[in-house]
Design a protein that fits this description.
The chain is about 35% helix and about 20% strand. With about 475 residues, it is of the alpha+beta class. Helix 1 (about 20-30) packs across helix 10 and helix 2 crosses helix 3. The two termini are about 25 Å apart.
Length: about 475
């Protein structure tokens, strides 16, 4: 696979966390030069730009800059703004990219449900719009329980099951600052969706009501090239018991191959109907083994960046390398794979479920101990202000304060490595009940354990 000309540069949008690591890794392997535009929505002062952000102006400015900067391709895995902005810029410049209308269809969750109902009704759930914008009175006559989620959002924000009118009312009450943030996150999408798709499209400033599903959750990752849908793999999602919060994501999947093939068939029908002819995708779905029922949660019209490192470890496929290939119009099937370094890998999510639990970020000594004992570890801490933590509990029901990626020989070895690595960080391993998890956090804050470097016997095997 040849690299683009040395004068050509690739633009990445809203590139941070996993994407900053992944795109840099893949670009270095191919000799591609990267530039970056956008801002971090979750850190100050970068996120202050939200006050005047306009997608059309953002894309127009990048288009004017492209010839002088030598950009020949653009990519983004950012759900809120990046994927749509990249599609709009690629369309404007005549570069390879995901069709803009397909991005809009996937991200407008009511419209996506409507398309799915037409082409794969067996994988859909009963759904309806909440006939009220954010903060407005909740209508009567709704059947409960219902799973509610925003028509346009990311990261499971404001998504939860409500059991009665009072719960839904509380869930939709916001302060002036919260309403300002929500409106500024949604409005750029709203303007473009109504202009491009339908001026009478239901507002994205609303919640969607769905019949709740209780079943194991999975992720199908793949790409579309030249109109053909290809699967990369399936990642299993494990929740904290009794919650809707992710505890870890595991590879390889325990889902039977026949069910994975059914998921791919549903994805193929939906993506073709949505006009999704080019790009990476992630389909979140439930599978109820007792009823043999597969149910789509939603389609993300971009890579699930958190999983790229897992596939690289276990399968030898780098999703970020596939993203760069697609951005340049190259067939991802021709991207060389590498030898896997682990038999199993997971993305471990550290959360607190009690607002009064004390969460201590690892000291420099603890991080050094982790790096020495587990050189294959990828750590992403998420320290936040008290106000941001309070908003997390309102919008997500928990506070995600860190993520750790590790590999192991198998699932058993991976768990042992996670428990030892977590002890080095001073965090409870994500294999515990929420109550036990928060009790451990409080105990560790009162009685901090010294950071002690050590080496697990499997460290070398799992690099």
């Amino acid at each position: 696979m040849t690299a683009p000309p040395s004068r050509a540069r690739t633009l990445t949008l809203f590139d941070y966390d996993w994407d900053a690591v992944g795109h840099a890794r893949a670009a270095a392997a191919r000799g591609i030069q990267l530039d970056e535009a956008g801002f971090d929505l979750f850190s100050f002062p970068s996120n202050a730009r939200l006050a005047w952000f306009d997608l059309d102006r953002f894309v127009a400015r990048l288009a004017r800059q492209a010839p002088g900067r030598g950009w020949s391709a653009v990519t983004s895995q950012h759900e809120q703004f990046g994927a749509l902005a990249a599609a709009m810029l690629a369309e404007r410049m005549g570069w390879p990219g995901t069709p803009v209308d397909a991005i809009l269809t996937c991200q407008h969750k009511w419209l996506a449900r409507t398309v799915l109902e037409r082409v794969a009704p067996e994988a859909n759930v009963p759904f309806a719009l909440l006939q009220a914008e954010y903060g407005a009175p909740v209508p009567t006559g709704i059947d409960y329980p219902r799973f509610v989620k925003p028509v346009k959002a990311a990261f499971s924000v404001l998504a939860r099951t409500v059991h009665n009118h009072a719960e839904l009312h509380r869930h939709t009450r916001f302060g002036a600052w919260e309403l300002w943030v929500i409106r500024h996150l949604v409005e750029p999408f709203e303007r473009i969706a109504r202009r491009r798709l339908d001026p009478d499209l239901p507002s994205a400033h609303r919640l969607l009501l769905e019949a709740p599903v209780r079943a194991a959750q999975f992720n199908l990752d793949g790409y579309v090239f030249d109109g053909q849908v290809h699967a990369v793999g399936v990642v299993d999602a494990v929740m904290y018991p009794g919650t809707q919060a992710f505890m870890r994501f595991e590879l390889p999947s325990a889902l039977p191959p026949a069910v994975q093939a059914r998921a791919l068939d549903v994805a193929r029908r939906f993506l073709q109907a949505a006009g999704f002819r080019h790009g990476l995708f992630n389909m979140e779905f439930f599978y109820d083994a007792a009823r043999d029922r597969l149910t789509v949660i939603e389609f993300n019209p971009r890579m699930a960046s958190q999983f790229s490192d897992l596939y690289l470890r276990v399968v030898g496929i780098d999703l970020h390398a596939l993203a760069l290939a697609l951005a340049h119009g190259e067939d991802p099937a021709r991207v060389p794979s590498v030898a896997p370094v682990a038999g199993a890998a997971a993305s471990f999510v550290y959360r607190s479920f009690q607002p009064d639990a004390v969460v201590c970020q690892p000291t420099a000594a603890r991080r050094m101990a982790l790096a020495e004992a587990f050189p294959d570890a990828l750590l992403l801490p998420f320290p936040k202000s008290a106000g941001s933590v309070e908003r997390d509990f309102k919008w997500l029901g928990s506070y995600r304060y860190g993520i750790l990626h590790l590999g192991g020989r198998d699932a058993s070895d991976l768990r042992a490595r996670c428990e030892e690595a977590s002890a080095l960080l001073g965090w409870p391993a994500p294999y515990r009940e929420p109550a036990e998890h928060d009790a451990t956090l409080i105990r560790q804050a009162v009685e901090p354990q010294p950071a002690r470097p050590f080496t697990h016997p499997s460290t070398k095997a799992a690099r």
